[in-house]
Amino acid sequence: MTTLHLSFYSAFVLSSLGLAFHRTHLISALLCLESMMLSMYVALAMWPIQMQAPSSTLLPMLMLTFSACEAGTGLALLVASTRTHGSDHLHNFNLLQC
Predict the structure, then answer these.
(1) Transmembrane stretches, by residue range (predicted)?
(2) Averaged pLDDT of the chain
């Protein structure tokens, strides 16, 4: 395993651990999701270079597009929940209420 692979794996694992254990604010959960997507994007962008493929793939650009849509949706949910509940603490949200 090269140091490049180790850094991608460790970034993904650290962000998923942050998502699992530090769920107090919605913004911290969104930042952990974004760091997971960023580590996956960099890994997918470096994959053709590691495999010495002659052409680049379209998959990293597609993933970056979905990541931007996910970030926009997450920020819209953050603003809407802050306006209705008064804060972005995740323990204030009740998913069973409409």
Answers:
(1) 6-22, 29-49, 61-80
(2) 85
